[in-house]
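Practice problem 4.
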């Protein structure tokens, strides 16, 4: 067993950091709620075809990164992203027949077979939102503003917002032609994948991670010069809306995003604090996707935010998400009779919602005090034969050293609760109360 390790590119989220995850997820849920997004939970695996048809046959995700599993006679793929499954679920359950727009969010794990490195995992987590029904540039600004509010609220600094428009199938026709002409001269230098993309989907070449391909693509024509009137007006409106909301942005015509379903608006929030994998959030509009998956033509948009990258950035910037963990009271029994008493009192405290622990290791007084210190106990109470005989013991405030006599009766938990509240009011840790 000792030799079995977790798979490459996966992470164990240990108790020492899971509190950060919980706090982050709580904030995400709160902000999503403020914007009217409701949670959706979809399966971890879907029919492979769903991702081929939505993410796109010529993307890295579908060509290289999918985990496809065969069980008995069926084949499925572990979701590489959240949008496809979410839209599939909305369609299958008739959510688009309800009042529009539909706003949903999710927190889920994604699976991509990539080369693991800092900020690039094979199992990672995304917070994502999808909004279906609105073609308005207000919707684009709303979704971008939601991502921005999350980034501000968790306390990340120095993140840039890049926006672009990659047009619609109409304006992309001309653009594809221009790209094919541009790349034709350097055909033999392109990587094999890009060579096949040149015919089918030349815009994908702009998203290739190979240094050779990106160098060739450096001076490629930009889509912004090819936008049709509708796409161009939409982009102008988005820019106006962002300015109105006081959201700083930079137009970056190089951003095409790694998934095929995008149309018009695409955007990324990028940090330079975690090295090369700096895109913390990526998203955009996908007006064709719902129709493509067999639903009614419905404009929609969303984003996915990489939670590992978000937490990594926070850590590198020294932002603290969680307070140090502590326990309200540790009961220190001395002897067998005391152990039973302490065990019963601990249980009574827990029934009152007070976090309490007592010895289950048969430790000495000294070793117990050391443990109490380690778990950051706010109070301790030593219970020995004398305390049991008197029915009274001293509760010690570990911060001030102050001792308070307390009866070891049925009202113990209630009395301690009052003491705990008083100490919180008296101390400087008021916010722990609220
Ligand atoms: P990249 O260009 O970094 O590969 P992508 O374009 O593949 O990103 P999306 O598919 O748009 O990314 O996913 C949205 C977000 O999910 C990314 O911005 C990133 O924060 C996160 N993400 C994507 N792939 C990974 C991964 N392998 N490990 C950790 N986070 C990831
Ligand atoms: Mg990728």
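Answer key:
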């Amino acid at each position: 067993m000792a030799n079995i390790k977790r798979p490459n590119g996966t992470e164990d989220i240990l108790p020492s950091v899971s509190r950060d995850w919980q706090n982050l997820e709580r904030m995400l849920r709160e902000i999503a709620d403020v914007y009217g997004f409701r949670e959706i939970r979809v399966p971890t695996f879907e029919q492979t075809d769903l991702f081929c048809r939505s993410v796109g046959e010529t993307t890295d995700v579908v060509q290289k990164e999918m985990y496809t599993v065969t069980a008995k006679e069926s084949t499925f793929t572990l979701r590489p992203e959240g949008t496809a499954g979410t839209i599939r679920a909305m369609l299958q359950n008739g959510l688009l027949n309800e009042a529009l727009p539909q706003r949903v969010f999710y927190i889920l794990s994604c699976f991509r077979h990539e080369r693991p490195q800092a900020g690039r995992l094979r199992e990672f987590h995304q917070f994502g939102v999808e909004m279906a029904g609105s073609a308005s540039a207000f919707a684009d600004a709303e979704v971008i503003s939601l991502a921005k509010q999350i980034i501000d609220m968790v306390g990340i600094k120095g993140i840039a917002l890049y926006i672009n428009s990659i047009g619609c199938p109409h304006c992309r026709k001309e653009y594809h032609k221009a790209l094919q002409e541009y790349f034709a001269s350097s055909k033999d230098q392109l990587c094999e994948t890009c060579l096949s993309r040149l015919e089918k989907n030349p815009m994908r070449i702009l998203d290739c991670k190979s240094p050779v391909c990106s160098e060739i693509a450096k001076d490629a024509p930009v889509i912004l010069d090819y936008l049709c009137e509708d796409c161009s007006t939409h982009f102008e409106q988005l820019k106006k809306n962002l300015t109105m909301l006081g959201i700083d942005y930079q137009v970056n015509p190089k951003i095409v995003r790694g998934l095929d379903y995008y149309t018009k608006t695409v955007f990324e929030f990028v940090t330079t604090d975690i090295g090369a994998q700096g895109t913390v959030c990526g998203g955009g509009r996908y007006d064709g996707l719902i129709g493509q998956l067999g639903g009614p033509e419905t404009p929609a948009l969303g984003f996915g935010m990489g939670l590992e990258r978000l937490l990594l950035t926070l850590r590198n910037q020294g932002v603290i998400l969680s307070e140090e963990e502590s326990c309200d009271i540790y009961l220190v029994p001395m002897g067998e009779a005391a152990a039973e008493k302490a065990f019963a009192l601990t249980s009574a405290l827990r029934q009152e919602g007070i976090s309490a622990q007592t010895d289950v290791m048969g430790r000495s007084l000294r070793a117990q005090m050391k443990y109490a210190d380690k778990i950051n106990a706010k109070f301790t109470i030593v219970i020995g034969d004398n305390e049991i005989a008197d029915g009274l013991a001293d509760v010690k405030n570990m911060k001030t050293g102050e001792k308070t006599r307390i009866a070891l009766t049925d009202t113990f938990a209630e009395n301690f609760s009052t003491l705990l509240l008083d100490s919180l009011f008296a101390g400087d840790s008021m916010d722990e109360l609220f």
